[in-house]
UniProtKB/TrEMBL annotation:
One of its GO terms (biological process) is negative regulation of DNA-templated transcription. Pfam families: TetR_N (PF00440). This is AcrR family transcriptional regulator. The keyword Chloroplast does not apply. InterPro entries: Homeodomain-like_sf, HTH-type_TetR-like_transc_reg, HTH_TetR. PANTHER family: HTH-TYPE TRANSCRIPTIONAL REGULATOR PKSA, HTH-TYPE TRANSCRIPTIONAL REGULATOR RUTR. Residues 30-49 bind DNA. Keywords: DNA-binding, Transcription, Transcription regulation.
Length: 222
């Protein structure tokens, strides 16, 4: 047993906790049992996680930080950047679907964890919403929150299929997000003009005004 916090030890603790929760039940498993199974001290466990609930959502804390860092970079297309951030989160769970499914089952069985999951989902949505508002000055807040909510809902729908045992490659999510981009009229490839399009160049009427402005500015010579 050691008090050192090597990066790999977090993964070992999470895996040990999920194993114990699945075998004995969430409420019946103690922090001491998790620490012993993972080969760390009790104090190390609390430094790394804080509590049993935090172990279950440890990946999300890391992913939220990584997503925030990714969106803080410069992106030519903010709408596509939000979709790519969603795909990056999905790929993390798809890399080890069995562990993700076991964790999902535990969350479904414990009301307190289900509540925490709802809050966690909202944190992704809020992150996407704020990023779009910052990246597209003048964007109608309804367009920002609407697109953030749509991407989050699409992501969760596809991820739940994976959690329930289906084989779901990331390409399935990408296609669904492409549809979301088209619904907002902001797909990078554009689309054929329709009868109700507002023509400046050719922009769909449903495209947010801030995105029209961004594309026009991008097309103008310096």
């Amino acid at each position: 047993m050691t008090d050192s916090a090597a990066p790999s030890s977090r993964t070992a603790v999470v895996a040990a906790a999920i194993d114990l929760f699945a075998e004995h039940g969430y409420d019946q498993t103690s922090v001491e049992q998790i620490a012993q199974a993972a080969g760390v001290s009790r104090s190390t466990f609390f430094r790394q996680f804080g509590g049993k609930e935090d172990v279950v959502f440890a990946d999300h804390e890391v992913l939220l930080a990584e997503t925030r860092a990714y969106l803080s970079q410069q992106h030519d297309d903010p709408w596509a950047a939000v979709c790519e951030a969603s795909v990056r989160v999905f790929r993390h769970f798809a890399a080890d679907p069995e562990l993700a499914r076991r964790r999902y089952k535990i969350v479904r069985e414990v009301s307190g964890l289900r509540d925490r999951e709802i809050v966690t989902v909202f944190r992704y949505e809020r992150l996407f919403d704020q990023y779009l508002r910052d990246a597209l000055p003048g964007l109608d807040p309804l367009d920002a929150v609407g697109f953030a909510a749509l991407v989050t809902a699409v992501h969760n729908h596809v991820l739940r299929r994976l959690m329930r045992g289906a084989r779901v490659p990331a390409s399935v999510l990408r296609r669904a997000l492409d549809d979301a981009l088209r619904r907002y009229g902001v797909h990078p490839d554009g689309e054929d003009a329709a009868g109700d399009d507002l023509v400046v160049a050719v922009f769909p009427r449903r495209m947010p005004a801030a995105e029209v402005t961004r594309r026009l500015r991008a097309s103008l010579p310096d």
